């Protein structure tokens, strides 16, 4: 399970909130960037939503999910290409269905898994991301009925669904853009366009002004990203707005068929770059730092792109704790690689260290290596893309095979997250010896990267690799070795002790370690280590 950013963990990761929420959103981890606008829109309409925003240190991961899922009055299941394959999503959807709390929403046109086809999914495939969009009005009615515990009037909902569906088709792209300006100007009209014609240049200028002032809504940010995409990614990209304001499809959903083994096609790269650009732009449009927001817009201009990329890169390097750091690297990576800028490749390498389970990032990186005639690394990155896709779908045997084939061909910067993912797969089958060997390799590679670049993302996940290594050693029965490795990691990198039980076992073995107990942030999101009882301490 999962959160924003592709971070490390299982197919999806969740973070809890102290207050019980009325609405629980179930989704696949790789769809986090697409689900965030939905959660924000629901909150803007006054709903109390739980979708993993803040897990405090020390809270029990699985207990929080269980509690929030059990107490929610409505469970939104977001069906996409990824979630339809997710065991976790199907399990949560099944529980919601059986208890009469299921509210399905469709972001991709997919075949809904067996057992759920009889439930009408709200069609959000053409949603523009706005809280006031027609789709949100219909969803609000369904949710209010669920929360109030009253029966839903099926015929009335069907009538409104047809009416709103017609409205969605009628409203053209330019009308949507005109509405954005109308809302920004004081909301003098809702459906009817203004008397004077509004050009795209006028609309872009108005949205850029709102961006500079930090006042863009999520809906406006998506619209501005679509307007600027052609300039940022080049004319070979999908320069025009998607039909009917449609949201971008998941990277590679259709164009993956054009790939051949070991090679990422241009169509597949362009799909991944377009989707990545839009999601990262929408996230960064709300960044609190004005220089970041300005640089995001300047990426669309040939004359200012390089300076803007350097501004974003410098900011990301200087602010390792910024929660939107991954989005900065993804924006620089997609735009840089589309324009053959060497900084694009470096940004993509940083991005896979933060969120290694994003197959689109690996596909863009594969194309980048191919462009530089690094064919072995290009094929390996393409294999990793296939591997993490399989891993996200719960196909761990196929994932392990792909990642093992790729690992020897990768450079140290990107080999570390792959070694760590292989460790995670070993943990899933409780192969603690295999896991410790893989985490050992990941830890060693991250140390090398961190030594070369102390501000790199590799340094940021070094503590997680060290803690995974010592926990897997402990569970394999090599507790003394685990304690010694922990002591060495603490001396070299100030790594905290991951849990109280390990601290006590190390103390009984008279290994002098730091008594500070704190799980690395990345590991608070993945419960694999926490589900299995520790092995008995051995000398």
Can you tell me about this structure?
With 539 residues, this protein is mostly helical. Helix content is 57%, strand content 4%. The chain is built from 24 helices and five strands. Strands 2-1-3-4-5 form a five-stranded parallel sheet. Strand 3 (74-79), helix 3 and strand 4 (102-106) form a beta-alpha-beta unit. It starts with 22 loop residues before the first strand and ends in an 8-residue tail after the last helix. Residues 1-18, 53-58, 166-196, 236-258 and 527-539 have low confidence and may be disordered.
Radius of gyration: 24 Å
Helix content: 55-70%
CATH architectural name of the domain at 23-170? 3-Layer(aba) Sandwich
Low-confidence stretches: 1-18, 53-58, 166-196, 236-258, 527-539
Per the CATH scheme, the topology name of the domain at 23-170 is: Rossmann fold
> What oligomeric state do these chains adopt?
single chain
Please indicate the percent range of residues in DSSP E strands (runs of 2 or more): under 5%
CATH-level-4 superfamily name of the domain at 23-170: Toll/interleukin-1 receptor homology (TIR) domain
User: Helix count, per DSSP?
Assistant: 24
**Main structural class:** mainly alpha
The shape is globular
């Amino acid at each position: 399970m999962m959160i924003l950013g592709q971070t490390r963990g299982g197919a999806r990761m969740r973070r809890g909130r102290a207050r019980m929420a009325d609405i629980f959103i179930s989704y696949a981890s790789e769809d986090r960037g697409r689900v965030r606008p939905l959660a924000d829109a629901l909150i803007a309409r006054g709903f109390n939503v739980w979708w993993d925003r803040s897990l405090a240190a020390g809270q029990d991961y699985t207990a929080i999910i269980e509690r929030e899922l059990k107490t929610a009055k409505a469970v939104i299941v977001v069906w996409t290409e990824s979630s339809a394959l997710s065991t976790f999503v199907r399990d949560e959807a099944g529980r919601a269905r059986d208890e009469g709390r299921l509210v399905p929403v469709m972001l991709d046109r997919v075949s809904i898994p067996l057992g759920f086809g009889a439930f009408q999914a709200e069609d959000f495939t053409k949603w523009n991301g706005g809280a006031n969009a027609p789709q949100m009005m219909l969803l609000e009615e369904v949710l209010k009925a669920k929360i109030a515990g009253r029966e839903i009037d099926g015929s009335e909902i069907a009538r409104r669904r047809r009416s709103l569906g017609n409205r969605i088709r009628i409203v053209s792209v330019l009308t949507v853009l005109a509405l954005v300006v109308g809302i920004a100007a004081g909301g003098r009209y809702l459906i009817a366009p203004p008397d004077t014609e509004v050009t795209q240049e006028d609309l872009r200028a108005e949205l850029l002004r709102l961006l500079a002032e930090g006042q863009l809504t999520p809906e406006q940010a998506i619209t501005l990203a679509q307007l600027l995409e052609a300039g940022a990614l080049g004319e070979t990209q999908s320069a025009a707005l998607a039909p009917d304001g449609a949201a971008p499809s998941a990277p590679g959903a259709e164009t993956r068929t054009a790939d051949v083994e070991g090679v990422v096609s241009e169509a597949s790269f362009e799909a991944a770059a377009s989707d990545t650009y839009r999601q990262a732009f929408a996230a960064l449009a709300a960044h609190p730092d004005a220089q970041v927001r300005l640089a995001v817009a300047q990426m669309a201009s040939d004359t200012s792109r390089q300076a803007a990329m350097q501004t974003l890169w410098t900011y990301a390097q200087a602010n390792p704790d910024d929660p939107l750091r991954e989005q900065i690297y993804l924006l620089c990576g997609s735009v840089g690689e589309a324009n053959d800028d060497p900084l694009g490749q470096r940004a993509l390498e940083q991005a896979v260290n933060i969120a290694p389970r994003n197959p689109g990032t690996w596909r863009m990186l594969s194309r980048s290596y191919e462009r530089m005639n690094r064919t072995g690394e290009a094929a390996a990155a393409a294999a990793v893309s296939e591997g993490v896709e399989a891993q996200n779908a719960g196909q761990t045997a196929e994932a392990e095979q792909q990642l093992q084939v790729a690992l020897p061909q990768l450079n140290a910067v990107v080999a570390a997250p792959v070694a760590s993912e292989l460790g995670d797969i070993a943990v899933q089958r409780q192969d603690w010896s295999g896991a410790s060997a893989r985490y050992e390799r990941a830890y060693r590679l991250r140390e090398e990267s961190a030594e070369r670049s102390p501000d790199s993302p590799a340094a940021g996940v070094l503590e997680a690799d060290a803690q995974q290594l010592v926990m897997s050693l402990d569970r394999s029965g090599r507790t003394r070795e685990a304690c010694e490795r922990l002591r060495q990691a603490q001396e070299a990198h100030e790594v905290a002790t991951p849990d109280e039980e390990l601290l006590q076992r190390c103390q009984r073995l008279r290994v002098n370690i730091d008594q500070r107990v704190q799980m690395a942030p990345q590991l608070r999101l993945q419960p694999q280590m926490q589900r299995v009882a520790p092995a008995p301490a051995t000398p």
